[in-house]
Fold this protein.
Amino acid sequence: MSFLGPKDDTQPWKGRYAPYDLIKELSIAVGVITLLAVLLTVLLSSPDETPSTLGQWSHQLPADFATTAAKELDETSPTAEYGPPYNHNSGSVQHFLFLHPQRWLGVSHPINTADDYVIKPLETVPNDEALRGALAEYKAAPEKQKKGWSEAYAKPLEEYATAVEEKKPPPSTVSVNSSTGTVTVRASGAGPVPTMMRSLLALAQSGGLDGSLLTSKNFFQTDYTKPLLLMSDGGLLAERAEEQHLLGKQWGLMNETGSFPGQPWLWLYSLWYQVEPMKTSPNADIQVLLIMGVLSLAFICIPFIPIVNRLPRWIPIYKLIWREHYRSLPQPPVPS
Amino acid sequence: MSSVGPPPATARSKSWTVKVREGGVAALPPEKLLPDGQPTYVASWIYVFGVASIASLIVIIGSGSILALKGPAWWHDTGVGHFFNSIHLWSVELFFFAMVVHLWGKYWMAAWRGGRGRVWVTGAVTFLVAIPAALTGYVSQQNFDAQWIATQAKDAMNSVGAGAFFNLTNFGQMYSYHVLLLPVAVVLLVGAHVLLVRRHGVVPPFELEKKLPAAASAGAETDGPPPSSTGATS
């Protein structure tokens, strides 16, 4: 340590000792902490907000679901454009200078939004000749044609979403029946897409899409990546999160639902997202994590960082901590 | 071929077991490992927060073990399960609170002095490892909070490439991290931290060398350290 900071001349203690019972102290501490935890539990309990499902989302916000599904088919949703680890696009790929770790680690959880969120789930729907015909027509069409159909269907829905967001009258091309939860899109040139989307909405409202997205080669399933990403492309999670003050601009990662403390130890991490340039940077996450990485390393290395390791000597908080000890030391004789 | 009595000295000197035992006892003799005396300067409320951190960790592991025994969905369906989930949550909050106060206290004592650098390092790393241990708990809750945190925090993990092997939206993976891998890491780190504290003793106050002689001589003449505690510092 001598080459990094001042000479450490701390000597082993040669003074007095007081009786101490380590096991007793730990036992009492466990008892007190248990009592405190029980007291807080009895007084405050803990939050448990019911999770959202695709079925719930498609019932509550059918137009939002249809808009999102159209983007998944069109491959213009946030997930479709994300990039690694889900696909090879670049919509959410971040980097810092020459560091491209997201790109380097590649696609580890492949998601093809058109196939995984629309085509494959619809193929599981039985006894629907119209849907079967629509699917066959869609799959047989060239890519350019598919794109044209999807865009033609998505455009009125996007106009509807914009109008709702801006609190303007919605366009006449989209009508939503909130009592039946159906969405009718009058889109010319959309080919088989309206039939597919009608069936997808019905499948989601029946709860079938939730199950379909969790189906894998294995019977047991614990990976919720696909349904969670689909839901986060829509508006339901964000709507609920805003009500629960969980958005990023609300320092969301620190918070819990309700008024419960969440992870307040993440305050410094959350802070960086509130300041420029991270606040508006498309590479905010990697910037914040790199800052926190450097600060964490510095935190570990505090004993070896000049000045930082001298601050406790210069700012005499230690006199408060050890006041009893200093008080017990013999005072220098007062000159007579 | 077996023989009666202890093995010859040459065989013992090559034994890994003997080396570990003798090294362990030399570094931490029983009176150092479980002392019955502490230096008199260990007399402040700030010292409570170290043991409070360990006590909170014990309550976390206890309540978490009960939740693990009954499975991840239990606490949503029963009052008893919710009670233990609440205990788990609040003990985590107390753990971090105690740990933060403990760390600040140790910083202002410059508790790394006197060859105690590793004590600080293990404590700081414990704090940093406890953060993902808690995060994986939050995303394993199977409620709306877990959905939201997982979908938001995934971008940070993905941005540094960690999403490839640490997928916050994969409940099974996060649950494994939360109930096994990260708690084991925290417990091992806390164990190493405590053993290092026991080996080196609690850091003495500043300016010890200037004011000690009178106190030390006075102590030697009056109270004196308990015979079994003289090795509590190194």
User: Anything to note?
Assistant: Strands of chain B lie at 37-39. Chain B touches chain A through 107 residues (CB under 8 Å). Residues 113-200 of chain B form one domain.
